[in-house]
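Researcher: Here's the sequence for the chain we discussed earlier.
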Amino acid sequence: MADLQDELHPTTEVGALDDLPDPFEPGEPYTPVSDPDTAPLERARAILAAHPVADGYSGLPWALRHLPWFDLELGESAVDTDVPRLREGHVGALFWSLHLPEGLAGDRAVGATLEQLDLVKTVVHGHPEGLRLAGTAGETVDARHCGRVAVLLGPAGASALGDSLGILRALHALGLRVLTLSGASWASEAGLTRFGEEVVREMNRLGVLADVSGASEETARRAFAVSKAPVLCTRSAARALRPHPSNLPDGLLAALGAAKGLCMVPLTAEQTGPSVRDVADHLDHVREVAGPECVALSGTYDAGTAHPQDLGDASCYPYLIAELLHRGWSESDIALLTWGNVQRVLRGADFTARAAQQRREPSTAKIAELDG
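Model: Thanks. This is the structure I predict for it:
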């Protein structure tokens, strides 16, 4: 494991590239970074400067497809996300969704996902002063220490696989790190089939995280049981507070917490409500039911949804953190919410993949053999 430890923790030379403090890790002593007597918004910005947001979902790739020209480093008014606003919001890492519009399936879904992967890489390479591709926990920390926003690829939809584990491996080789387990015959309302379970095992071996937002409860519970790596819900709030189909009932939130997964609460009016206070209510509830190490944030910007007041774009995270401080959240719990919990999940995927690769070869299973 020594070589993996070296990969996951930046060297002194990398850390010396700027004066940012090291990210807070669960279980380590925590040193406050702000004065409790400072106004909440100023305290929020100070905490975020030390522990930036790892945003669980951005719809930017599909939004950019429809723009004839854009410059994310100077600023782009046609979208909710650009480098200046990411920096103003203290966003340190961002998962770029590869989800597709409904109706795309089969070869068309595979092809459209590949096109989005290509677009994201082109966009990131075209904005080198602000963005950097990352695939592991260590790479996200390295990007942050270099003053860049780490871009992680995914989630993609299950239809992107074309029911082929070979395509899953090819997508991983191109950078995919999160896959949503819904919209396929092997991940349906009835739950995961035998082939679906094999998909999850191969994802574990590769280091691709499973996302069960929007999946059936049966699929989610089976994913918790089968996956050796933490499971994500990239866009799920509390159904007890708002009965949206993608929000999680308390029983599933508790099961997610027991499995050490991560519920990433979306900043959308549809799922959480029209105000910052509504979003904070969901964060309070998820933290209470699943635990403080199992809650994170999902901006869900540029995904075609309306956002709560004062949370209209990627620059607005300090307003949410100020509300949490007003409610008595500790700085250490906020550090977990914004950065530490996502780092834990990424490290879990890294360790699980390294161990699984020592135990098993790439799977050659076919859907017709397991589910036929």
